Amino acid sequence: xxxxxxxxxxxxxxxxxxxxxxxxxxxxxxxxxxxxxxxxxxxxxxxxxxxxxxxxxxxxxxxxxxxxxxxxxxxxxxxxxxxxxxxxxxxxxxxxxxxxxxxxxxxxxxxxxxxxxxxxxxxxxxxxxxxxxxxxxxxxxxxxxxxxxxxxxxxx
Length: 156
Description:
- By secondary structure, the protein is mainly α.
- It has helices at about 20-45, 65-75, 80-90, 110-135, 135-155, and strands spanning about 95, 105-110.
- The longest helix is centred in the C-terminal third of the chain and has 25 residues, at about 110-135.
- The two termini are about 30 Å apart.
């Protein structure tokens, strides 16, 4: 796996000596993943999707959630999330409607939004296979287990 912008010997630095610290390594890796997803999205024909839209189209996906809850989940202001929702609704990725028996409008993914999400998932599955092949399935599964453990702890 070659991650642009990261020197090969940077990964060999003793963590006790200093940078790059794990946060920087996570950021560089995440940027690589995000670039791969963005390329896959555009290659699939969703050329109107912008990088800023990842703020909404990230885990968990925005389906059946109130805009204020989405803003809380994504750690964004309601104004900022609404700005993105207006764009995504105009592009046909989401819709805002009130469920039957309610007057509160929720965000729902449209069929186009679900196709976009599946494109993202396909890209992530491909990266999963590539990385598991590159570092070995056992090591990759351990990597995932550690990330899941740390993610669960971070959400508490």
